Automatic annotation (TrEMBL):
One GO cellular component term: outer membrane-bounded periplasmic space
Family of this protein: Belongs to the RseB family.
Molecular-function GO term, any one: antisigma factor binding
Name the UniProt record assigns to this protein: Sigma-E factor regulatory protein RseB
Keyword Cell membrane: no
Organism for this UniProt entry: Enterobacter agglomerans
Domain MucB/RseB N-terminal, chain residue ranges per copy: 3-106
GO biological process, one term: regulation of polysaccharide biosynthetic process
InterPro entries found in the cross-reference section: MucB/RseB_C, MucB/RseB_C_sf, MucB/RseB_N, MucB_RseB
Alphabetical keyword list: Periplasm, Signal
UniProt cross-references to PANTHER family, sorted A to Z: PTHR38782, SIGMA-E FACTOR REGULATORY PROTEIN RSEB (PTHR38782:SF1)
Compartments, as annotated in UniProt: Periplasm
Length: 163
């Protein structure tokens, strides 16, 4: 065991849906059962077809995501997060209260590099994307610089690397 928590939850859980509304459509599909819980099913579809889409199953009572499918442009599943057993009762609530006082290890994060300004710009990026970070590093063994720019809309991210 390490001394850091590594986040393995899909990015859609942390998304700001009001910001995503310009680039994605949110479509209510109906209801289905996951982990013996009734769920509302929601599709999150890219408006311009340049990004992946999601299907999200939200527990009707708690609004917790019990299944999240990441789909490519052809609708094929690329990644799936699925809850297989789900229970929220007084026992679970009491255990969760104990976590508020627990001394947990820090979340793992990427250390910030030196601030760098790159002079090149991509000719096109999808609407709603913004620059998240940029860096320059030397490729080991090649003695060449690689410059990278990371873009995101809060749900989908991509990087452009130039040598």
């Amino acid at each position: 065991p390490g001394n850091h928590i590594i986040d393995a939850l899909p990015s859609v859980i942390f998304a700001d849906f009001t910001k995503l509304a310009t680039a994605y459509d949110f479509i209510t599909v109906g209801r289905s059962r996951i982990a013996d819980q009734m769920c509302d099913v929601l599709r999150i579809v890219s408006r311009d077809g340049t990004r992946y889409s999601y299907v999200v199953w939200l527990d009707v009572d708690t609004k917790l995501p019990l299944r999240i499918d990441l789909l490519d442009r052809d609708g094929e599943t690329l990644e799936q997060f699925r809850v297989i057993s789900f229970a929220v009762d007084e026992g679970v609530r009491n255990l969760m209260q104990g976590l508020e006082k627990a001394n947990l290890p820090p979340s793992l994060s990427v250390p910030k590099g030196d601030a760098v300004t790159l002079t090149w710009q991509p000719g096109w990026i999808p609407a709603g994307m913004s620059l998240v970070s940029q860096n320059r590093r030397t490729l080991p063994g090649l003695n060449k610089n690689m410059e990278s720019k990371l873009y995101s809309d809060g749900l989908f991210s991509f990087a452009i690397n130039v040598t």
